[in-house]
Amino acid sequence: PPRILTLEEPVLHMDHCIAFAVHGNPAPTLHWLHNGQVLRETEIIRMEFYQQGEVSEGCLLFNKPTHYNNGNYTIVATNQLGSANQTIKGHFLEKPFPAVSGLFSFQMQHTPEFLCVDSKAFSFQVSIAVGLAAFACVLLVVLFIMINKYGRRSKFGMKG
Questions:
Q1: Nearest alpha carbon to residue 59 among 1, 2, 8
Q2: DSSP assignment of 72-129, as one string?
Q3: Shortest CA distance to 58 belongs to which of 34, 27, 101, 96?
Q4: What is the pLDDT of residues 109-135, one digit of tens each?
């Protein structure tokens, strides 16, 4: 039956790598679980390994993982004689906005309706905001020019 020889925490080489080595004869089939769910290979997560005799060595590779990839990773090796599994905790990044503790903390159980806007209303609001910002910038430039032009003369003919 298969035996998991090593399973190491993620290390950054070119990509992040969870290194593993599995022994089994016949060669076991390998698959991964992430937090108990089957992990499908994507452009971001893929497994590379090579078989050398009865030992399979390789890496579960992560291309620029985020906090969504944090969690428990379980390798499952199966052949006709049995199966083996081992779990390791993978931690890549902290959440970008951790929960605020204290007086102002809250949890959102669902998305409030005021956050759900349609794209036409949102684009109109953005265009209004950009227009107001442009008007404010033009007004500030005009005021700056007027202050520099007319603000230099002393009213009483005295030099300051």
A1: 8
A2: EEEEEEEETTEEEEEEEEE-----SSPPPPSTT----SS--GGG---HHHHHHHHHHH
A3: 27
A4: 555 555 555 677 778 888 899 999 999
Token digits of residue 100: 């605020």
Cβ partners under 8 Å of residue 149, min gap 6: none
- Smallest Cα–Cα separation from 15: which of 52, 58, 76, 55? 58
Note whether 21 and 5 are within 8 A (CB): yes
Strands 29-34 and 71-79: antiparallel
- pTM, rounded to two decimals: 0.58
Cα angle: 110, vertex 112, 114; to 5 degrees: 165
15-90: CATH number: 2.60.40.10
- Contact (CB, 8 A) for 73 and 39: yes
Domain locations in the chain as residue ranges = 15-90, 118-152
